[in-house]
Amino acid sequence: MKLVLDAMGGDHAPAEVVAGAVDYARATGHTILLAGLRQAVEEELAKHDTAGLDLPVIHAAENLAMDEKPAMAARRKKDNSMAVGMRLVKQGEADAFCTVGHTGGALTAGHMVFRRIPGVHRAVLTTPFPSAKGLIILGDIGANPDCRPEWLAQWGQMLSIYAQARLDIAAPRVALLSNGEEEGKGTELTRAAEPLLRDLLGERYIGVVEPKEMIGGAADVVVTDGFTGNVVIKLGEAIASYLMEVIREEILARNLAKVGAALARPAFRAAAKRLDDREYGAGLLLGLNGLVTVGHKCRDRL
Predict the structure, then answer these.
(1) For residue 116, what are the contacts with CB-CB under 8 A and spacing of at least 6?
(2) Same domain, 155 and 91
(3) Is the peptide bond before 130 cis (omega within 30 degrees of 0)?
(4) More exposed terminus of the chain, fewer Cβ within 10 Å: N or C?
């Protein structure tokens, strides 16, 4: 494959992004096109052994900073690294685009470069999310903090189609995330979206779920606005990391527990893998005429 990576996206770009691209190219043999400021990217590449790797640098004169308003910045900076990278995919020179930069910038650039699939109101950012029964599909997870009811209804349909392929489920159960099951609970947005979801999806829509039911695997697809979804995944990541650290600290504080931990090491590793958000990859921006993924910002490993 030929993949385009936004070399200027993320809190530690381009250093960590380039390092990740080198590791991935070496592990897979894929071509990784690095879109960004040529001099800065080439300086980082020079720090690594890239012999035999295909890592062409595609110059982008501008980049979208994390503290900029994404819609305005993306429109003003026509040659930002996201837009330059996406245009390569649109022109057929690459297969997919990925950034670990500004989610709102990726959404705006995606709408501008690829355009939406006909009939789609708004692209939705989604990711697999672990539950007690396996994986569920959760969206939106940060691209659209302010939403309209009809967007949520359409996302339910789009995410259901994605879940059929991603989870291999013929008729995914779709639910709306809320703070209670009782009638009238939720925000004005969720109350307005519920009848639209029911009309659009019929029996596939199973109603609202609370977070505990979502984690319990009561639904295969959970729909929410981008603000709530982003809080959910960040809280989930933080809790998982905290739990693993607490377990580690308590084991190291007891000599007998260290012996037991040595015997249980395979189980601990398996549990850590299930709870590690990196196992589920970047979020997929559904609804565009091109493949766009938005990854987590670079951070220390667990």
Answers:
(1) 122, 123, 287, 288, 289
(2) no
(3) no
(4) N
Q: Give residue-wise pLDDT tens across range 148-173.
A: 999 999 999 999 999 999 999 999 99
For residue 207, what are its two tokens?
């109603």
List C-alpha distances in Å: 290 to 3, 120, 124, 235, 286: 12, 13, 13, 30, 9
- Beta carbons of 34 and 61 less than 8 angstroms apart: no
Q: What is the pLDDT of residue 79?
A: 85
Q: Which stretches within 91-184 are classed as H helix?
A: 103-113, 149-166
CA angle 225, 279, 81 (to 5 degrees): 65
Q: CA-CA distance, 164 to 23, in Å (whole number)?
A: 32
**In angstroms, rounded to a whole number, what is the distance separating the alpha carbons of residues 97 and 94?**
8
Per the structure, the count of domains in the chain is 2
Pair of tokens at residue 65: 């900073």
Does residue 155 fall inside a structural domain? yes
Asked if 84 and 172 sit in the same domain, the reply is: no
**Residue 29's domain is classified under what CATH number?**
3.40.718.10
Output the six-digit token pair for 160.
């259901």
Residue 139 falls inside a structural domain: yes
Specify if 39 maps to a domain.
yes
The residue segments making up the domain with residue 166 are 124-230+276-281
What's phi and psi for 121, nearest 5 deg? -70, -45
Residues 104 and 149 in one domain: no
| Cross-strand pairs, 32 | 3
Whole-model pTM: value is 0.87
Q: Could you tell me if 70 and 176 lie in one domain? A: no
On whether both 138 and 220 belong to a single domain, the answer is: yes
